[in-house]
Records
---
Amino acid sequence: MTTSPHESEKLRLLAVELAQEAGDLIRERPDTLHVTSKSSPTDAVTQMDAASEELLRRRLSEVRPDDAILGEECPDTPGTSGLTWVLDPIDGTVNYLYDSLQYAVSVAVVEGSNDPSSWAAVAGAVCRPSTGDTWSAAAGAGAFRGERRCQVRGTHDLGTALVATGFGYTVERRTHQAHVVSKVIPAVRDIRRGGSAALDLCAVADGSLDAYYEKGLGPWDHAAGALIATEAGAIVTDGRGGQPTSELIVAGGPAVHDALARCVNKAMHDAPGG
Ligand code: IPD
Ligand code: CA
């Protein structure tokens, strides 16, 4: 990490400001949401996803013009500073579409690479505008929900762990994931499907979940949340000791993480498809 602690803290505060500004924008739902689809008919995107990303990009071009941007809805913007902003303008778009509260804006800044398997996360923020909550972290400086420090739960036994997961948008991926979750359910206390990966990771950070896993995330889904969970004491990996990737993310307190990673890896190996 070449970014200093002082600079990381400034970037955390900027991530919070940007996530909250975009959160304010999307909280004001228009009367009509124009919905189009992406990877499958169930993979929705609305004009508010685009508007939120436009706001974030416009603000970054004003205050951080040398940084690169990797966002869910727009082509990549190259940069020269070595820092990349990783943006999810609405995480939980399907919840947003149904006027359900569990959606978020996720803003992270990483250094060294724009590939989650090798980047170093510097700072990030996740804003849930429907409740006014914002989680944030800077590398090495802890995680916060508002001003309150976050700490993962100390659950030791996977059998009593409350575990969240999520599902992709294609029939093949969902069929595979259904097989995997059928092997995980008997091994844990219960399963949750919240509909926002960023918020699932923040829930691990503040102890309202013990653990979370998912296959197939985009980098913007987990960039901020993975740092927030890590800074709250979670282990966050690809299930094999590396950094999370689109192949797999597993997050949880140290004891639960390892047991869940073993369980999910075996289930993925045995399940058809992928
Ligand atoms: C989705 C959410 C969901 C997860 C999906 C993601 P989107 O992001 O994070 O919880 O299960 O894999 O694609 O499409 O709402 O930005
Ligand atoms: Ca997302």
Note: The chain has a mean pLDDT of 96.
---
Amino acid sequence: MSRLRTLRHLAAAVPLVVLLASCGQSGPSPSPDSAEAEEPAPDPDAPGVHRTGPDRFTAIIYSTQGVYDPDEITVPAGSEVTFRLITDDEMIHGLAIEGTDVEISTSPPEDAEATHTFDQPGEYPFVCHIYCGGGHDIMRGKVVVE
Ligand code: CUA
């Protein structure tokens, strides 16, 4: 009698164990490297240049009237750079980069994106090419390719 009870108990417990195991698999897996886990994850929306792969970068540029943040982007020659232009003041701003075919503008609240590969070192000035008010004429920056 006691043996039968034990078997019933086991039969009931097995599906629960399987359920728990599958739950564990679908959840976020903890990092195996605890030292790595202590580093705060970089904010992908932070202004600046983010490496996304070998020779690949995303440049996050915030735009407000008269100001790009950042207004200088530095990448190594041969880099494929995706520019993401984000409006910070609900205005339409542009980003036109000299010497490239990058010419984009935000449609708030939508960001704008374009990608260009910089093979040649040098400086590539950029400007806001959409009139956005008083600061429009001073809204400029540059890409530095080293
Ligand atoms: Cu921003 Cu013109």
Note: The beta strands are 48-53, 56-64, 67-69, 72-75, 79-87, 94-97, 103-105, 112-118, 122-127, 140-145.
